[in-house]
Amino acid sequence: RKGSAWLGSPSAAGAAAAPSAAAPSAAMGAMAAKHVNQMAFCPPNPTYRKEDVNMWLDTDRGNRIPAFHIRRGFPLTVLVSHANAEDLGLVLQYWAYMSQQLQVDVFAYEYSGYGHATGSPCEANLYSDARAALKILVDGFGLKPERDIVVFGKSLGSCPTCYLAGKHAFRGVVVCSGLASGARVLFPETRVWALDAQFFNNLGSLASCKSPTQLVHGDCDETIPFSNAQDLYAVCRAHHPLPPGWITGGSHNDIESRHRDAFLAILKEFLAHILAAGPTRVMPPSGISAVLKSVGSSVSSSAKALWSCTAPPRSQPAHDM
């Protein structure tokens, strides 16, 4: 599902990068953040009903977000971070199908400002939402990230996925059509670390990741240039046990449909590899406390009472991710 606008308004990004020299630095940062958020986040109108949500998470930034959990008793749970023009209603059916295809349980969460979540979409809230999702899996369900959890992120969802992967050991990390940084999406040939660090710095996060990683990217991606995937591979190659999943002819929105067989083959091979390899080694001072430091959120009472939603019947997905 096509999201927008990472490449739709470079002039706006340029305006954000060069305000009046007299403007205070705080104002400059706020202006840049506003433009980046407008380009990065494209929440659709809610595609599901609020009354159908039976799991709510409270984040450490004061927002309340829906989530769903497909539990079928498989050894691995995939923690899904969706793309920028989707909400949970658009991904539930697809991941019910993928749960069966990949033989995994699935946990997916909403972003602040998307669907029926409170708050507004921004980078800080995105990472807060991901922390809340990980917290319920660890504290509520007793999962160990290095043994039980594979984090998966598509497009914008690569950002919270890489963020978590840079903080803690997971059984596996999958980045699909991910960006290297906000700067390298807008200006692929401008490789300046100082610019990368400003917004959505997946390069910096993956450089700290020690978990087995699998990249998937179409070499004809028109939204997030293929060079972003190559840059990500350069920083995580030491922990990338299999060949990168470059999809010949794949664009940003057709990997899961037109190239479904190749996509599934890549994921199945990676999951088989990490299952055979055993849990990821946790190196001190790594640990869940490092990921959840300063997290003051608690699981809402409704989530404690109703942790799992019923998966819909197995079916072929009718939409692209």
Summarize the amount of helix as a percent range: 25-40%
Strand content: 5-15%
Tally of DSSP β-strands: 8
**Low-pLDDT residue spans:** 1-23, 294-321
Instruction: State the order of secondary-structure elements, H for helix, E for strand.
Output: HHEEEHEHHEHEHHHEHEHHH
Number of helices: 13
What is this structure, in a nutshell?
With 321 residues, this protein is α/β, with parallel strands linked by helices.
Structural write-up:
The chain has helices spanning 10-17, 25-40, 88-102, 123-140, 145-148, 158-165, 182-186, 193-196, 202-207, 226-236, 260-277, 288-291, 301-305, and strands spanning 56-58, 64-70, 77-81, 105-109, 149-154, 172-176, 213-218, 245-247. The model is unreliable at 1-23 and 294-321 (pLDDT under 50). The longest helix has 18 residues, at 123-140. The protein contains 13 helices and 8 strands. The chain has 321 residues and is of the alpha/beta class. The radius of gyration is 18 Å and the shape is globular.
Indicate the topology:
Layout: H1 10-17, H2 25-40, E1 56-58, E2 64-70, E3 77-81, H3 88-102, E4 105-109, H4 123-140, H5 145-148, E5 149-154, H6 158-165, E6 172-176, H7 182-186, H8 193-196, H9 202-207, E7 213-218, H10 226-236, E8 245-247, H11 260-277, H12 288-291, H13 301-305
Parallel strand pairs: 3-4, 3-5, 5-6, 6-7, 7-8
Antiparallel strand pairs: 1-2, 2-4
Helix pairs in contact: 1-2, 4-6
